[in-house]
Amino acid sequence: MTTITASMVKDLREQTGAGMMDCKKALSESDGDIEGAIDWLRKKGLSKAAKKSDRIAAEGLVGVFADGAEGSVIEVNSETDFVARNAQFQTMVTEFTKLAAKADGHVAKFLTLNYPGADGTVEDHLKEAIATIGENMTVRRLATLRVDGGVIADYVHNKVGDGLGKIGVLVALKSDGDKAKLAEFGRQLAMHVAAAAPLALTEAELDPAAIEKERAIYSEQAKASGKPPEIIEKMVEGRLRKEFFQQVLLPQQTFVIDGKATVAQAVKDAAKDIGAPVEITAFVRYALGEGIEKKEEDFAAEVAAAAGAS
Q1: Where in the chain is the domain with CATH 1.10.8.10?
Q2: Which residues, including other chains, have CB under 8 Å from residue 164's CB and lie 6 or more apart?
Q3: Is the dihedral of CA 232, 237, 239, 242 positive or negative?
Q4: DSSP readout, the chain?
Q5: Can you give the pLDDT of all 310 residues of the chain as single tens digits?
Q6: How far is Cα 237 from Cα 51, in angstroms, rounded to an integer?
Q7: Which CATH architecture has domain 6-47?
Q8: Does the domain at residues 59-190+281-287 carry the CATH identifier 3.30.479.20?
Q9: Where are the CATH 3.30.479.20 domain residues in the chain?
């Protein structure tokens, strides 16, 4: 019987995109014959993943999992919303979310982790799901928050299952006060983050390019006033702080729960009930598909192309 080597498995994976364990089994079934192994994988429907890898995946789900002082959020994309409603896909994303903390925000590392209850890795399981469900799927991003002496609050918007939806939020709160009340307030903050979409906690955390873009816009508008350059500069800086920063920095936003106080003031007010000072140390907000350029499909052209090829 032919010995199945690691290089043989690697070659077969590169040709078919199938999972490592599937490639190993295919080679065993075909006594080491690559072509026979490819045929075996095709018959099992496991060699389709590679062919689907160039399709744009902008749908899917955001998964959130929080447990006390640690929480993770992950975005797993599919090609269609139909797949996002698939029970197999939802189960996979749930398992991914629970496993995400071990990767500390690194997708490449995450893909190498062992998938729970299986012999292969996360990447192997993902490729098997692609072959089974028939759509390209990708793990786009993930993040984990931890806090000492506090809680990680979570919230999922447009929820389709436990911890699964279109927008996922984590908020890290540090406090020595009542943990139950802290968690309750944290959920309100997480809901606010989902609705208001802040970009950062502090000015220093903002992308400098975003600040310069706003500064340039305000500067052009201010020049129309005809005022001296030094006055224009003060006008621009004033608008940055009163308008832009208030819109994108979490502490300066108006708290959506009451629509009156800023988030910073709401934190101070909550501290009285919680029994100790409260500090927001970090937050993460994932909205499904944000930033992904979706390909515009020309259905008529697609039908014409298919007719021409037939």
Answers
A1: 6-47
A2: 61, 62, 63, 64, 90, 93, 94, 156
A3: negative
A4: -----HHHHHHHHHHH---HHHHHHHHHHTTT-HHHHHHHHHHHT-S-HHHHTTS---EEEEEEEEETTEEEEEEEEES-HHHHT-HHHHHHHHHHHHHGGGGTT-HHHHHTSBPTTSSSBHHHHHHHHHHHH-S-EEEEEEEEEE-SSEEEEEEEES-SBTTEESEEEEEEEE-SS-HHHHHHHHHHHHHHHHHH---BSSGGGS-HHHHHHHHHHHHHHHHTTT--HHHHHHHHHHHIIIIIHHHHBGGGSBPTTTSSSBHHHHHHHHHHHHTS--EEEEEEEEETTTT--PPPP-HHHHHHHHHHH-
A5: 688 888 888 888 777 767 778 888 889 999 888 888 888 887 776 665 555 555 556 789 999 999 989 999 999 999 888 888 999 999 999 999 999 999 999 999 999 999 988 889 999 999 989 888 888 899 999 999 999 999 999 999 999 999 999 999 999 999 999 999 999 999 999 999 999 999 999 999 999 988 988 888 888 888 888 888 888 888 888 888 888 999 999 999 999 998 889 999 999 999 999 999 999 999 999 999 887 765 544 445 544 554 554 3
A6: 52
A7: Orthogonal Bundle (1.10)
A8: yes
A9: 59-190+281-287
